[in-house]
């Protein structure tokens, strides 16, 4: 992926990893468009970082993505990078009385169907652009799950598999397909307590390491994965899956 001179669209770009990536890429001289549901957050990032463009997108509203697509094509026909980052995470307790699939359905709508819909909307544009890239935010939990977040982890495992197939299909187009697999990072993905959790990696440090990996082209088979997560990535191959799963799910 070229790191300068792009026009980049970042979904879920008003907070957390998406916001930090948007700011980092903007700092490298790229034109950056961020999307999100809340207008005040879009205005806030645009105000704090002049030149970043905020556009509303609510993946639960059927007309929102086509409307965004029309506007982006009209205003930014040079778009060549899409970072499908929007995601949600919720714990689920299947032992609880009254447990149902509502939380799982919401996760699937955003984390799976949202990524597919965003890709389908903008892939025709990217196919005609030089240095085109699709990046989707997966998770290191795709490889060894936290059992208290079953659908979230499964949604990221789906994305990992789907991105492998997309990368193969698009190998001659060419559109580069990258998978960003973060560890546990200090964001509000699971709630406000995660931002200050000392077990989580500081957000700035994570993004700095990601940009370094991209700079050096250190993403074998398209996977942007920190060294600290290699053990989880290769747990089954190395015969350590059971031990790592037990350590991650000890409570």
Automatic annotation (TrEMBL):
GO cellular component terms listed in the entry, alphabetical order: membrane
Classification via SMART domains: PKS_KR
Oxidoreductase keyword on record: yes
Keywords: Oxidoreductase
One family name in Pfam for this protein: adh_short
SUPFAM superfamilies for the chain: NAD(P)-binding Rossmann-fold domains
Record GO terms (molecular function): oxidoreductase activity
Ketoreductase domain boundaries: 6-184
Family in the record: Belongs to the short-chain dehydrogenases/reductases (SDR) family.
Name of this chain's protein: SDR family NAD(P)-dependent oxidoreductase
């Amino acid at each position: 992926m070229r790191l300068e001179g792009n026009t980049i669209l970042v979904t879920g770009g008003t907070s957390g990893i998406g916001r930090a990536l948007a700011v980092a890429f903007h700092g490298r001289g790229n034109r950056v468009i961020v999307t999100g549901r809340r207008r005040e957050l879009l205005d806030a990032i645009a105000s704090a970082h002049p030149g970043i463009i905020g556009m509303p997108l609510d993946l639960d509203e059927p007309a929102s993505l086509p409307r965004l697509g029309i506007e982006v094509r009209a205003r930014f026909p040079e778009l060549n990078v899409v970072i499908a980052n929007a995601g949600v995470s919720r714990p689920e307790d299947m032992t609880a009385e009254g447990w149902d699939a509502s939380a799982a359905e919401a996760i699937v709508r955003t984390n799976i169907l949202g990524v597919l819909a965003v890709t389908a909307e903008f892939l025709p544009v990217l196919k005609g652009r030089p240095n085109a890239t699709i990046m989707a935010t997966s998770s290191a939990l795709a490889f060894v799950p936290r059992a208290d977040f079953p659908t979230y982890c499964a949604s990221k495992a789906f994305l990992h598999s789907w991105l492998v197939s997309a990368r193969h299909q698009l190998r001659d187009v060419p559109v580069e397909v990258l998978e960003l697999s973060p560890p546990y990072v200090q964001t509000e993905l699971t709630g406000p307590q995660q931002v200050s959790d000392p077990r989580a990696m500081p957000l700035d440090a994570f993004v700095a390491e990601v940009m370094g990996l991209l700079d050096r082209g250190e993403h074998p088979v398209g996977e942007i994965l920190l060294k600290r997560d290699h053990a989880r990535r290769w747990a089954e191959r190395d015969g350590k899956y059971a031990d790592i799963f037990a350590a991650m799910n000890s409570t």
